[in-house]
Write a structure and sequence with these properties.
Elements: H1 23-51, H2 66-71, H3 75-106, H4 112-120, H5 127-137, H6 146-158, E1 175-177, E2 183-185, E3 195-199, E4 224-230, E5 254-259, E6 262-268, E7 274-277, E8 285-288, H7 308-332, H8 337-345, H9 350-378, H10 382-387, H11 399-407, H12 414-444
Parallel strand pairs: 3-4
Antiparallel strand pairs: 1-2, 2-8, 4-7, 5-6, 5-8
Helix pairs in contact: 1-12, 3-4, 3-7, 3-9, 3-11, 4-7, 7-9, 8-9, 9-12, 11-12
């Protein structure tokens, strides 16, 4: 008969020990981290909390919660709060959605890795550099700003630019403004006498390539003729209202004959500035439409008061879409392909597979990306400070920028700046606690 097995010995840590070792040893190992954490995190938070209770003159004037009251009543801080709300709603949502689309699509293309590299590259650029890049991208001048160069190019493809923007008739001449930017003669056109339509207001350099103007000959078939030209001679001289040698023609100008408010004939000036209208134009007044003189389309005012915040959010999305894409693509590798294939076998389309299989399985990853971006967006400062010009910086203001402006950017009120810092901390805390709880739940599984 076999002897009974000896009972297993269990070694229990002594009472008062952590993980089986002496408490003071654990404290000794944690001390450097605790000191660093206290110096870099705990002390600044406590100092900011105390400083927010005092006024502009350091710790001499106790104001209690006065700074917090001013924070919710001052126009600048209210604008910053509103813009922060827009940032929190729009930027993380759009960035996560784009990252999801990029991650799913790149799985199906041969050059997906190269595409991911291109999309992720902006993450290697600092916020300062990205701000400088997009300040140039959004420049209002189409010759400098890429965004307006594209917009103007598309616009001019479908709408022709005016021939001579800024041109106008002489004061007290026969041509008078007739509403909407057009000019109309006060006298009716006669078939036997060529009509002269002199214009001024154009720099000579703008018409340097134009041919010399020519006085129109009378029509032989009862029509109306005339000349449109720049009534200005380089170097001076010449007679007002007459075609003089050396004066430049204005070609391509549209001329309309108007009777009783109705256009009865149209013509376009030739290279020498002359035009000819049919006999139906006799007795009509001649009109030069506004399309000849309106200023050329200059593009969109991206950094104006209306669009400055959406424009800056666009720059942020350009930078962080790659971050979202990489994390979501990593989550996609853990998605069971059998579920997707089974859904396709059952007749589900790609959109149904994406909406009912892929997205629900990726929900934990999507939530982590979204919450991380929310925390990041609440602290955005660099892009707004660099991209927004001084004239519209207040329209694009956010809490982090207002903190800087209140404390160091001319405001000199560190009490208000500290109050904004505490509010930012309180806004970030729920997102941080949410992430911590998710991590703990995942570790328990």
């Amino acid at each position: 008969m076999a002897a009974p097995a000896a009972p297993a010995l269990t070694v229990r840590p002594r009472k008062g020990r952590v993980l089986g070792t002496r408490p003071w040893v654990a404290v000794l190992f944690l001390l450097p981290a605790l000191v660093l954490l206290g110096a870099l995190l705990l002390y600044p938070i406590l100092w900011s909390l105390v400083r927010s209770l005092y006024g502009i003159d350091d710790f001499k004037h106790f104001v209690g919660l006065g700074n917090y009251g001013d924070l919710f009543t001052t126009d600048a801080t209210l604008t910053a709060l509103r813009n922060n709300a827009i940032w929190v709603v729009v930027a993380p949502t759009v960035t996560t959605a784009l990252g999801l689309v990029f991650a799913v699509l790149t799985e199906r293309i041969r050059w997906g890795t190269a595409f991911k590299l291109v999309i992720f590259m902006p993450m290697a650029i600092s916020m300062l550099a990205a701000g400088i890049i997009f300040r140039l991208v959004y420049d209002h001048d189409p010759s400098k700003g890429v965004a307006n160069a594209v917009v103007v190019g598309v616009h001019d493809t479908f709408a022709s630019a005016s021939a001579y923007p800024g041109a106008r008739p002489r004061v007290n001449g026969d041509l008078r403004a007739s509403g909407g930017g057009s000019f109309t003669t006060t006298a009716a056109a006669a078939p036997g006498t060529p009509t002269v339509l002199p214009l001024v207001g154009l720099p000579p350099a703008q018409v340097a390539s134009q041919a010399l103007a020519k006085a129109a000959a009378p029509s032989s078939d009862g029509g109306v003729t005339g000349t449109v030209w720049l009534d200005f001679k380089p170097g001076g001289g010449g007679r007002t209202g007459q075609v003089d040698p050396g004066e430049k023609a204005l070609s391509g100008v549209r001329v309309e004959a108007v009777k009783d408010g109705r256009v009865v004939a149209r013509a376009t000036t030739g290279k020498d500035g002359t035009f000819a209208l049919p006999a139906s134009a006799a007795g009509a007044r001649l009109r030069l439409p506004a399309a000849n003189f309106t200023a050329q389309y200059g593009g969109v005012d991206w950094l104006g008061p209306t669009l400055v915040t959406p424009a800056i959010i666009g720059a942020y999305i350009w930078m962080w879409a790659g971050f979202a894409m990489v994390l979501i693509a990593a989550g996609l590798t853990a998605v069971p392909r059998e579920l997707q294939e089974a859904a396709r076998v059952d007749g589900a389309g790609e959109w149904q597979v994406f909406r009912k299989i892929t997205v629900p399985l990726l929900a934990p990853v999507l939530i982590v990306v979204l919450v991380t971006l929310v925390i990041n967006v609440l602290k955005v400062f660099d892009l707004v400070y660099i991209i927004a010009p001084g004239s519209t910086q207040q329209d694009a203001n956010v809490l982090a920028l207002q903190l800087y402006l209140s404390s160091f950017g001319g405001g000199g009120n560190q009490g208000m700046g500290s109050a904004i810092g505490i509010i930012l901390l309180l806004l970030v805390l729920p997102a941080m606690l949410f992430n911590i709880r998710r991590f703990r739940r995942e570790n328990r599984r």
